[in-house]
Amino acid sequence: MAQERLGVLAIYISKSRLEELAYFKRLSKEGQKLGVQVEVFTPSDVQGNSVRTLTYDSERGRWLRKSTSFPPIIYDRCRYKAAANYQMLKAFRNRHSKLIYLSKPLANKWAMHQILSQSATIRPYLPATVRFSTVQELMKFLKKYKLIYVKPKNGTGGRGILRIEQLSRDLYLLQGRNQSRSIIAPFRANESQLSIKLHTLNLSPDYVVQQGIHLTLSDGRVHDYRLLIQKNGQGEWEVTGCAGRIGPHRSITSNLHGGGIAITQDRLLGFRFNSSAKIEDIKEEMNNFAYKLADYLEVKFGKLCELGMDIAVDPKGNVWLLEVNPKPSREVFRRIGQNSTYQKAVTRPLEYALWMLKQKNKSTDEMID
């Protein structure tokens, strides 16, 4: 049987180094088992009607470059860390709109909050969020919620996030990470000192201000959950898995890239709740919410392949959505030793791509008939 081809749209993080190459290697190996050739390329590898792709040769243990026609179906793994990348990828999609894409791009944090707020089903899971306007408005928001996060609307991986907490009537604590993910030294201040400090940070409407959910464990470290929901080989949503993440000491985020550790969902829930019935209820609530959110986002944006949801659980057991990512990592499952979940997380996009190609061939056959 002829091999199917799946194009993986990637991005260079330096002149010749591709982001996520280890994942693409694993994807290629799993693809070979399913009869799918994975072909990796970036928008800058396109030359007219042909494209210079990388395919992994398992026998020789290395990547091979060749010039070929466009693969019929595209798995977009580009992360838009810079505006220039976003524009380049948008131009690629516009120019090659006839290709089949496994997913559509989503909106930035602020636009996403507005879209999700339109749904009466999704709205209860969202922390209150506003766009940054002035330091004075930010202080009002802080006094209302006592704990807030300030995030770049296009940020990823915990870059540039601030956490501000009102500790007493005129004492505040500012913590965070800079744009290179380094931890900023905690800053305790009164209201006027905090205002001066915030003015020096050059905040702009490109930031959102969000109600904070209390995520601190007894040892002072923050935690959250990464839930992965993906389309399966029948084209239907299925929760692949959910794992916990705990940030390093003095960190306000739990991202693995920022030094966080992975832990099983059950164990992390067990740190806060001692009732097994309560833990099962929370897990069921997370899963139910994931299906609702995935369905809603497809209505708003079109076909999607997979979603990583960063979920918080407050001390009462309420579930909150912190962020949704259409290009999620699956590393968290490997880190907790759930190798079968990790393998499933790698394989599902391939199975979904095969299902999509089958649908395309079926509709082509019907047109001929």
From TrEMBL:
It comes from the Bacteria. One of its GO terms (molecular function) is metal ion binding. Keywords: ATP-binding, Nucleotide-binding. SUPFAM superfamilies: Glutathione synthetase ATP-binding domain-like. Coiled coil: none annotated. Pfam families: ATPgrasp_YheCD. Residues 113-351 form the ATP-grasp domain. The keyword Nucleotide-binding applies. The keyword DNA damage does not apply. InterPro entries: ATP-grasp (IPR011761), YheC/D (IPR026838). This is Endospore coat-associated protein.
